[in-house]
Amino acid sequence: MMVAPFSDIREANREIRVLVGAAGLVADCLCGGSVTSPIAFVAEAPGEREVQTKQPLIGNSGRLLWDVMRKDGITRNHVYITNVVKRKLVSAAEAHALTDKQNKIVLSKQELTAWRHILREELSRLPNLQYVVVFGNYALEALTGNSGILKYRGSVLDTVIDGRPIKVLCTFNPAYIIREPRMEIVFRMDCGKLKKLIEGTLHAPEIICHINPSANVALDFIRDLQTSTTYISHDIETMADETACVGLAASDHEGMCINWRREGSNAYSPTEERAIRLALQELLSNNSIALVAQNGHFDATWMWYKDRIRVHGYWFDTMLAHHTLYPALPHNLGFITAQYTDYPYYKDERETWKDAGDIDGFWRYNVHDCCITRIAAKNMLAELKEQDLYGFFFNHVMRLQRHLIGMTINGVKCDTGRKDTISRELEVSLGEARRLCESTARVATGIVDYTFNPRSHHDLRRLFFTDLKLVGRGDSTDKENRDRMRRHPKTGEASRRVIEAIDSYARDAKFASTYAAARTDDDGRFRCEYRQTGVASAPGRLSSSQTAWGTGLNLQNIPDRAKDMFVAPDGYEFSYFDMSQIEARIVAYLAHIPEWKEQFENARLHPGTYDAHCALASTMFKVPYGDVPKYDRDAGGEPTIRFVAKRCRHGLNYRMAPDKLATVTGLSIREAERAYRLYHAAAPQITVWWDELAELVRRNRSITTCLGRRWILLERYDADALDAIVAFEPQSINGDHTSSVIYKCQEDDRWPSDARIVLNIHDALVCINRPSDGALVRAIMKEYAEQPIWINSVSNRLGGIDKPEPLIVPAEFGVSYPDEYGTHRWSTIRKVAAASRS
Question: For FRET with 488, which of 181, 554, 617, 781 sits at 20 to 30 Å CA-CA?
Answer without folding.
Answer: 617
